[in-house]
Design a protein that fits this description.
Blueprint: E1 3-11, H1 13-17, H2 34-45, E2 51-58, E3 61-63, E4 66-68, E5 73-80, E6 83-90, E7 92-104, E8 108-113, E9 116-118, E10 121-124, E11 126-132, E12 135-142, H3 147-159, H4 172-189
Helix pairs in contact: 2-4
């Protein structure tokens, strides 16, 4: 693997105005879509390295007279071991993007576009394309994309008192550390 690019973007303006998920504080962009990207990148690349952040930036989201700090567009450029990674998310776009692109040796590119849902109904199925030298050599669509459901189920089981060790989530601590590292770098440095 030579490089990984991920983009999870969606229009979250209505949810943000309604303060969905905010709890006692405003959420920043990196607390919404970035955990999904971090988990998928760690899983797809089988990396055991923590993320090294080279660049991190987040814009405010402005809706009429409301402004949500560090809640709009966000980008992280870094590395997992020797794999360069770019992750971005725009929460004020009108497009829904849930994509991971893995650039490999021998001019091979793996592009995964995850399913889009609306109230449990699939609007657009998951699609995986493998290209070599610009030519699609494999293209498959899946109507059942349960990766997030399985991940959440495993997390619940992992933290449940009835389950002591879940071998599927050995990296949960590292995953959390990476998420917190990005979130804290924004909060501590007042990144805009």
């Amino acid at each position: 693997i030579r490089k990984v690019y991920a983009n999870f973007s969606k229009n979250r303006m209505k949810d943000s105005l309604n303060k969905r998920g905010f709890g006692n504080k405003e959420l920043i962009n990196f607390e919404i879509e970035f955990p999904h990207m971090i988990y998928l990148i760690r899983y797809l690349t089988s990396t055991k390295f923590p993320i090294r952040i080279d660049f991190c930036s987040c814009d405010n989201m402005k809706i009429d007279n409301f402004e949500f700090k560090n809640h709009g567009y966000g980008i992280v450029i870094g590395e997992y071991g020797d794999i360069p990674v770019i992750m971005e998310s725009d929460l004020s776009t009108y497009s829904m993007i849930r994509r991971v692109v893995i650039i490999c040796d021998e001019d091979i590119i793996i592009e995964i576009n995850y399913a889009h849902y609306s109230k449990e109904k699939i609007i657009k199925p998951t699609e995986i394309k493998i290209k070599q030298k610009g030519k699609i050599i494999i293209s498959k669509k899946y109507n059942n994309d349960n990766n997030f459901k399985l991940f959440l189920k495993r997390v619940i089981n992992y933290f449940s008192a009835t389950v002591k060790v879940n071998p599927d989530l050995i990296d949960i601590k590292d995953f959390q550390v990476d998420c917190l590292k990005i979130i804290n770098s924004v909060r501590e440095n007042n990144v805009y």
